[in-house]
Write a structure and sequence with these properties.
It is built from five helices and two strands. By secondary structure, the chain is an all-alpha fold. A two-stranded antiparallel sheet has the order 1-2. About 20% of the residues have low confidence.
Length: about 160
Amino acid sequence: MYRFGLFILTLLMAFSFGCGKSGQKNTQQTEQAPTEERGQRRGPGGRGQFNPEEMAKRQTEQIGEFVTFTEGQEAKILEINLKYGEKMRGMRRGGPGMEMSDAERQEMRTNMETLQAEKDKEIRALLSEDQVAGYEKYLEDNQSRMQERMQQRPPQN
């Protein structure tokens, strides 16, 4: 009788743990639904993958939190962000899971850094001295957020 009771208890525990995990999956699916409705896909690590228009708009808004734009500047910065977003998208065509050698990955990283420097130069050319100070604060804030995300990322084997 004791063994039978232990067997039933084990089955109940296994069943309850199994239900708990499936409940988590359902929760994750419902949490992702709103972003999928907005046209964003969830990428590796749960990050949204934005199209260049959405990314350019978001970057321009973020810069606007640190810089007070004069008339017409916001549209020009949006245009620059979009131009470079399209170029970077073209470089990432294979997607996050694409197979690359270390040399290819390093080359892509170098090319993206070059594009980022060109974009930065174009944006700085549009801004006044005071605005450049705010833009630099934006860049510092963006860099610290990226470092935080990198620290939270689990190590890859």
